[in-house]
Amino acid sequence: MSSPDYLIVGAGYAGSVCARELAEAGKTVMLIDRRDHIGGNAYDKVDEHGILIHPYGPHIFHTNSKRVFEYLSRFTNWRFYEHRVLAQVGAQLLPIPINRTTINKLYGLSLSGAEVQAYLDQVRQPRDPIKTSEDVVLNSVGPDLCDKFFRGYTKKQWGLDLSELSAGVAARIPTRDNDDDRYFGDSFQFMPDQGYTRMFERMLNHPNITVRVSCDYKQVREQFAGAQLVYTGPIDAYFDHCYGPLPYRSLRFDHEHLPTQAQFQPVGTVNYPNDHDYTRITEFKHLTGEQHAGTSIVREYPQAEGDPYYPIPRPENEALFKRYEALAEQQSGVTFVGRLAQYRYYNMDQIVATALAAAEKLIANRPAGDAA
């Protein structure tokens, strides 16, 4: 492909969905990624022991959007899976999000659902206005549950205290007065039956799409200078960090195979809010349903340096992003989409929805007489 209509930077959800939509609209697309694979952080592979793992940590698909679910269903069949997480508090493994079981086991109580809510009303510390994640948690569950489940985990995950993070971080985790121990409450909770990478391969299998991995945008941007650009990388990197770097939190993944253990832990993920340097351990066979004599796990160690994973939600970081966003809006022929390009803590389904909307806008704004 000598002169594609579009150059798309990044072969994760945002770039791949845009590529497929533009290709089906008759556009030619060159999709590049600096890594040696497609799928972004959702990339999965079979490890050397024959177990399907997620090299960049667990990715569990969940959504309330029927449109997003049906769109991805074009490229995969699904395995029903409801993710469950336990948190180690002292010697106990307790459900998180906090529910009736959590409170009863932690405090040796036998509260009914109505009594759970009354208990929480008794221990909570009302906060108004709610500005930080500390405000959210204390307003919901009070100081003891906050310290046991949230404060230490947040400090490890973000390198910041709850009081230093915007309210939206903690607001993602509900509190329940029943025994529902599912981590997510969404209508659609599934895993791709052959993995995420296979889903991306099918999505990108179109004659109008050319994929090039191990390819850095800066090395080829002159070669494809005439193409419209869809950019899904870090927005600050696109502008050579002219206002300074946007803060991100990174992760280090410690993968381990246990050849003599069929099961390492009772659920897919166990959180460690107050012990160890890692935040959580995930055992992949729970997610995939695979049968194997051994098992593969991953420990996650948050860190300041490394690949950007999580935009850090603080008002000053949002203000810096707005400066870059203003530059982006002045660019012609460039669309910024995705978690890094929009500096948003998006879930997978949110990225798909955002990419679909961006592609629709690009297709609708094509010049008069352009091919459909």
Automatic annotation (TrEMBL):
SUPFAM superfamilies: FAD-linked reductases, C-terminal domain, Nucleotide-binding domain. The keyword Flavoprotein applies. InterPro entries: UDP-GALP_mutase (IPR004379), UDP-GalPyranose_mutase_C (IPR015899). Residues 148-345 form the UDP-galactopyranose mutase C-terminal domain. It is an enzyme of class 5 (isomerase). It holds the Pfam family GLF. Keywords: FAD, Flavoprotein, Isomerase. It comes from the Bacteria. Its cofactor is FAD. The keyword Isomerase applies. Its EC number is 5.4.99.9. Gene3D superfamilies: NAD(P)-binding Rossmann-like Domain (3.40.50.720). NCBIfam families: UDP-GALP_mutase. This is UDP-galactopyranose mutase. It comes from Roseateles violae.
